[in-house]
Structure formats: C-alpha cells, structure tokens
Amino acid sequence: MNAGTLAQAAEEYLAMRRSLGYKLHWQGRLLGEFVGYLHEIGDYERSKAVAEAAIKSWSQAPGLGPEHESTLRAIRLLANALRLLGRFTDARRFNEQ
Hints:
Blueprint: H1 3-19, H2 25-40, H3 44-60, H4 69-84, H5 88-95
Helix pairs in contact: 1-3, 2-3, 2-4, 3-4, 4-5
C-alpha cells in the first residue's frame, strides 16, 4: 500500500466513524502518533502524505476544524516532514501559520 492510499484509507475510516457520531478523539491522536513513528523510522514521504491527509480531513470535520489541537499537531508534523525532506521554504510556511 502506498503512502497516499494508506493516508486516504485512514482518513476515510475516521470520517465514516465520525459521521456515525463517534468522537474518535484518541484515534485522532493515534494517527498523529503514527505520523511521528514514520518520522522516527525516516519515512518522511509517507509521514508527509499522512499528515497532509489528516490536515485536509480534520480541517473540515465537524467538531474539529482548522484550530483544533489535532489539526495543529498534524500541521507541525507536516512542517517537520517537509524540513527533513529539504523543503525548507514550504516547512517555514506551515510553521508560520
């Protein structure tokens, strides 16, 4: 499974469960921890893809939104992945948000 497919599957699952009324607060944190794990093992491309999918989904999710702590954490993780990939200008843009 490639990074985009993995991220999409995780976000679709979380979105479906939330649409059924589940809050899934700890599951959202787990996804963030998974991105952190990908950082630790050096899989920065997959880390970037999962963080981007989380940001997209959580920014629009009822009960979350762009200012929610999970969304902001995903933005920080994305900035870290971009920095580790050598994309310093992009990373700086996310750090300034």
